[in-house]
Write a structure and sequence with these properties.
With about 375 residues, the chain is an alpha+beta fold. The chain has 2 domains: about 180 residues, Endonuclease Chain A (Endonuclease, Chain A); about 170 residues, Endonuclease, Chain A (2-Layer Sandwich), CATH 3.30.870. Helices cover about 35% and strands about 25% of the residues. The protein contains 13 helices and 19 strands. The chain has a 17-stranded mixed β-sheet that branches. Strands 7-15 form a two-stranded parallel sheet. Helix 6 packs parallel to helix 7 and helix 8 crosses helix 13. The radius of gyration is 20 Å and the shape is globular. It starts with 5 loop residues before the first strand and ends with a helix.
Amino acid sequence: MHGMWRDGNHFELLPEAALFLPSMFAAVDRARHSVLIELYLMESGRLASALIGALVRAAERGVSVMLLLDGYGAMGLATADRQRLEAGGVALRFFNPLGMQSLVRNLTRDHRKLVVVDGAEAFTGGFGAVDEFLDAWYEVAMRIEGPVVADWVRLFCRLWDSPMSRGPGRASLVRGLELATRQREGYRGMRGRVVWGQGYRYQAIRHSLHHRVATAAERLWICTPYFVPTFTLRMRLARAARRGVDVRLLLPGELHDHPGVRYAGQRFYGRLLRAGVRIFEFQPTFIHAKFSLVDDWVSLGSCNFDHWSLQWNLEANQEVDDPRFAAEVAGLFERNFASSTEIDPEAWSRRPRLQRFREWLYGTLDGMLTRLR
């Protein structure tokens, strides 16, 4: 499923936790009917405790609160916190808990990140409920109002009610949820759609990005924390650069939560640089954000555009086709480029043998993983 393009939305860019966390918590605190949250990562700590407190307070006000967590990504959520949620009236379910029946099935994870309040406003991005988002990782989110919120609600409901989701929360809770979406007219109205992917079974996110890359006219900027692109995406990026498109990649530097993934992706730097692609490595901290800008089209959400996201994960992005929002995202990119080190093609060609060995080693492991089914 990828949603229809819908007019009359409003999208607010929320870079960094200092902006998006207060906005999300304020939305939950003013909820009157329902709060729907879907996360991959939730681990016991300061942020998880604050979120649990906000959800329990909402439930105590009579709000229907549903929390859908990935069965692997939430393994760090302590039993005491799970009990606190249930005792506080929060309906809790887990997607695809780990099991021994099918080891390959365990690879399918719910990587989406979503908060919907009263069916009227939504948030998406790359966030999770782990303390790294408070002070260690750079993240970007967005606030959404308008008709596309209904598409996010439908996406949540389908997974909550799925046979792969289990837990004490009743599957039937999502039936009959109220929607309060309204169109934004005039200067606030923006065009957008929800697009999602379900591993190799359904790849609407990938197809959408490939189409935009192939038809880019002026600029093609991508930010992703885990850059291990498919062959097709690499070729399209190179072709775009050769035909004169300003192609730039904003990637993590040495501060990375999975250094092996960085090395696996760096083995592609050489050919991309020779094609004219500019590569920037972010220096201040680990950049966990996932957003793309192609001319006036923006895609922001959970998808990393790496093999793992495209082959195994459930992902979802918000696409926006609006020059005003694109200008905001372009400004954000420019600020982040200024805080990054640009890879020099000549210097990269002289990188040490140890670096080349790491690229080969982790690239080989990545290739083995992509062949799993």
